[in-house]
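Posting here for the record, re: nicotinamide-adenine-dinucleotide.
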Amino acid sequence: MKEISCKLLVIGAGPGGYVCAIRAGQLGIDTVIVERSKPGGTCLNVGCIPSKALIHAADEFDKVRHMAGDKAMFGIRVQQPTLDLAATMDWKDGIVDRLNLGVTGLLQKAKVKILEGTAKFRDGKTVLVETETGSQIVRAENIVIATGSAPVELPVLPFGGVVLSSADVLSLREVPRKLVVVGGGYIGLELGTAFAKMGAEVTIVEATEQILPHYDAELVKPVVKRLAELGVNVLVGAKAEGLDDQETGLVISDGGENQRTLPADKILVTVGRRPCTEGLGLEELDLDMAGRFVRIDERCRTSMRGIYAIGDVTGEPMLAHRAMAQGEMVADIIAGGRRVWDKRCIPAVCFTDPEVVSAGLSPAEARAQSIDVKIGQFPFSANGRAMTMAAESGFVRIVARADNHLVLGIQAVGSGVSELSSAFALAIEMGARLEDIAGTIHAHPTRSEAFQEAAFKALGHGLHM
Ligand code: FAD
Ligand code: NAD
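Prediction output follows.
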């Protein structure tokens, strides 16, 4: 059997793994990365990128549709547009292919050795890789587990036939007439909204009493309103019980005796993700786990020396930018750097309509820590740029300490607010106070002025309200 040795072996080439390997290569570390599928992981192949491509295409189609016939918008009138989902998917696949090549190129440029195959631990320093051309042993001083996550399957609704995972729905060639989405979290709402805009009749079935339960009700309200405008049927406190006998509908209940069937051509199940650890040979190791996830410390070290874990396999928040930041840090640590995970916030963005952003503490989270807070909130309905874009729904909200005005959290809901997320994270990371944001000149006319206005409001003197 072929054997190779290296200083660092990274298992999984998703955003966590490939960033770690690139940075390690740049730092002169002799690095090998193993990937069983395509470079870029979930994010690039069946996650962030393809979903955002589809969401964008759906937005464009919806906009044009609302200019058709006698429904002119901005004075623009168009003929009735049509959507060719197969062509949309081909366009999306083209972007994914380009990025696959891009990641491979970056790894090669950093002199990282890429092994195509499935990795399995033999012990804490040795991994067996099954490739198409046979088995190979890799011995490594350091190993990073970056194997990511996979969709949770409900026992009552196994994937297959009309029951789709998020990966399946991202390769549909036709828009289903009736789409039922089980799970009103990130994926269900982002993709449910996109399919509604593309013409599907969408029903969301959410087990808790609120869609997007990770966000507070005030932030979610504009999303709920827009879903109603799009004709999406939102059912909360609803439990999926399984397919009906003809497999043409989803049986749901209120958790008790009351059951009914929702007709469905396709059922998308998006009820969370589980870590990819099976088949990895973890039983050969003595790793502490945190539930089903790999337990890590503030340096992404596991309980075994020389073994690190990053990204979704380590648990929530399962976000690509967290995985990348962990990957970059771990490469530096392996190169001898003195680094620790000391981030003040990990911004989260939900690409619904309107988009939702949260960085740092919400008002409720701050109060739960017994912090006395000042809150400033500014609506996009009072922002000139938002008016010019017919995007007046939503607001920016800042949460700051009442005593010294240190900004603890910033949230926003509104069209395009995903692009404000970096400004929010930067302010929190740099320890900004309300006066710093209020004192920064924000270019006019931009929607980012709502951020500055929210700071003025928290200071008690809003200018444009
Ligand atoms: P992954 O990206 O899952 O990569 C792990 C890699 O390891 C995979 O390529 C896998 O093939 C490989 N692997 C696993 N086991 C082995 C093995 N034994 N041997 C070899 N290789 C192995 N996050 C955001 O931040 N923003 C978004 O907009 C966003 N949108 C999303 C939309 C959808 C539909 C989905 C499903 C997810 C989305 N996410 C988003 C989440 C994001 O995709 C993940 O947080 C991110 O991909 C995690 O990166 P990772 O490197 O930890 O794992
Ligand atoms: P999620 O945790 O966001 O949402 C799952 C939802 O399903 C929850 O609202 C939950 O209450 C509900 N649920 C659970 N069991 C149910 C059941 N039996 N019936 C009905 N509802 C049920 O999970 P997701 O949408 O699958 O996304 C997985 C992860 O992917 C997220 O945690 C997120 O970190 C990541 N992601 C991020 C983005 C982004 O950053 N924009 C986009 C997509 C996915």
